[in-house]
Amino acid sequence: MEANIRTFKDFLQMYNLLSHTCFKRCIDNLNSRNLDSNEVKCVDDCSEKFIRLNHRFMAIYVEHQQSLVNKRIKEAEMAAESAKVEVEENSTNTLGISEHKPVPESQVPVG
Amino acid sequence: MAQTEQQKLQLIQDLEIEMMADMYNRLTSACHKKCIPPHYSDAEIAKGEAVCLDRCVAKFLDIHERIGKKLGQLSMQDEELLKKK
């Protein structure tokens, strides 16, 4: 239901954009009130091309999006791996420090 | 149930009004650009500009309707294709 309305909204927005774009591209003079045959043909071609373009963009986008997502996942995995290693190193370090610390402390009273 | 149906209808109507406003804004900006040259010696709309605006709006609406019909046809075709599958 929500998705349907979203789709409808996208459709209407696309419709407005399509009209606007093809108007800008096909109407270069306003010598008459009616569309002449050239303008009609231009508008028809323009709108069809726009739709094909939309489909093509979507196909290309999906393709690239997929590889982008894969890359991001790989990067996240690498980051998680290195973070894990760092944590492990840190924990061994703190252990090492706590083992070393008593030595100078015990030395202080003696000195 | 009846209320959600009504809400849905309201939502769709609101959307259509919003999109009509968007279309109107696009129309005015496109025709402004096409008909009003950017040198202002007079605040009045000149006769030629008025004629241009009139034709421009007529053509824009013509194109909008043409494309609307085309999109309607295409979506009908799509639906039929989906039904067949």
From TrEMBL, chain A:
<feature type="region of interest" description="Disordered">
    <location>
        <begin position="84"/>
        <end position="111"/>
    </location>
</feature>
<keyword id="KW-0479">Metal-binding</keyword>
<comment type="similarity">
    <text>Belongs to the small Tim family.</text>
</comment>
<keyword id="KW-0496">Mitochondrion</keyword>
<dbReference type="GO" id="GO:0005743">
    <property type="term" value="C:mitochondrial inner membrane"/>
</dbReference>
<keyword id="KW-0472">Membrane</keyword>
<protein>
    <recommendedName>
        <fullName>Mitochondrial import inner membrane translocase subunit</fullName>
    </recommendedName>
</protein>
<comment type="function">
    <text>Mitochondrial intermembrane chaperone that participates in the import and insertion of some multi-pass transmembrane proteins into the mitochondrial inner membrane. Also required for the transfer of beta-barrel precursors from the TOM complex to the sorting and assembly machinery (SAM complex) of the outer membrane. Acts as a chaperone-like protein that protects the hydrophobic precursors from aggregation and guide them through the mitochondrial intermembrane space.</text>
</comment>
<dbReference type="GO" id="GO:0015031">
    <property type="term" value="P:protein transport"/>
</dbReference>
<keyword id="KW-0813">Transport</keyword>
<keyword id="KW-0143">Chaperone</keyword>
<keyword id="KW-0811">Translocation</keyword>
<keyword id="KW-0999">Mitochondrion inner membrane</keyword>
<feature type="domain" description="Tim10-like">
    <location>
        <begin position="4"/>
        <end position="61"/>
    </location>
</feature>
<keyword id="KW-0653">Protein transport</keyword>
<dbReference type="InterPro" id="IPR050673">
    <property type="entry name" value="Mito_inner_translocase_sub"/>
</dbReference>
<dbReference type="Pfam" id="PF02953">
    <property type="entry name" value="zf-Tim10_DDP"/>
</dbReference>
<dbReference type="InterPro" id="IPR004217">
    <property type="entry name" value="Tim10-like"/>
</dbReference>
<keyword id="KW-0862">Zinc</keyword>
<comment type="subunit">
    <text>Heterohexamer.</text>
</comment>
<dbReference type="InterPro" id="IPR035427">
    <property type="entry name" value="Tim10-like_dom_sf"/>
</dbReference>
<dbReference type="GO" id="GO:0046872">
    <property type="term" value="F:metal ion binding"/>
</dbReference>
TrEMBL record, chain B:
<dbReference type="GO" id="GO:0015031">
    <property type="term" value="P:protein transport"/>
</dbReference>
<dbReference type="Pfam" id="PF02953">
    <property type="entry name" value="zf-Tim10_DDP"/>
</dbReference>
<keyword id="KW-0862">Zinc</keyword>
<keyword id="KW-0496">Mitochondrion</keyword>
<dbReference type="InterPro" id="IPR035427">
    <property type="entry name" value="Tim10-like_dom_sf"/>
</dbReference>
<dbReference type="GO" id="GO:0046872">
    <property type="term" value="F:metal ion binding"/>
</dbReference>
<keyword id="KW-0999">Mitochondrion inner membrane</keyword>
<comment type="subunit">
    <text>Heterohexamer.</text>
</comment>
<keyword id="KW-0813">Transport</keyword>
<keyword id="KW-0653">Protein transport</keyword>
<feature type="domain" description="Tim10-like">
    <location>
        <begin position="10"/>
        <end position="72"/>
    </location>
</feature>
<protein>
    <recommendedName>
        <fullName>Mitochondrial import inner membrane translocase subunit</fullName>
    </recommendedName>
</protein>
<keyword id="KW-1015">Disulfide bond</keyword>
<dbReference type="GO" id="GO:0045039">
    <property type="term" value="P:protein insertion into mitochondrial inner membrane"/>
</dbReference>
<keyword id="KW-0143">Chaperone</keyword>
<comment type="similarity">
    <text>Belongs to the small Tim family.</text>
</comment>
<keyword id="KW-0472">Membrane</keyword>
<comment type="function">
    <text>Mitochondrial intermembrane chaperone that participates in the import and insertion of multi-pass transmembrane proteins into the mitochondrial inner membrane. May also be required for the transfer of beta-barrel precursors from the TOM complex to the sorting and assembly machinery (SAM complex) of the outer membrane. Acts as a chaperone-like protein that protects the hydrophobic precursors from aggregation and guide them through the mitochondrial intermembrane space.</text>
</comment>
<comment type="function">
    <text>Mitochondrial intermembrane chaperone that participates in the import and insertion of some multi-pass transmembrane proteins into the mitochondrial inner membrane. Also required for the transfer of beta-barrel precursors from the TOM complex to the sorting and assembly machinery (SAM complex) of the outer membrane. Acts as a chaperone-like protein that protects the hydrophobic precursors from aggregation and guide them through the mitochondrial intermembrane space.</text>
</comment>
<dbReference type="GO" id="GO:0005743">
    <property type="term" value="C:mitochondrial inner membrane"/>
</dbReference>
<keyword id="KW-0811">Translocation</keyword>
<dbReference type="InterPro" id="IPR004217">
    <property type="entry name" value="Tim10-like"/>
</dbReference>
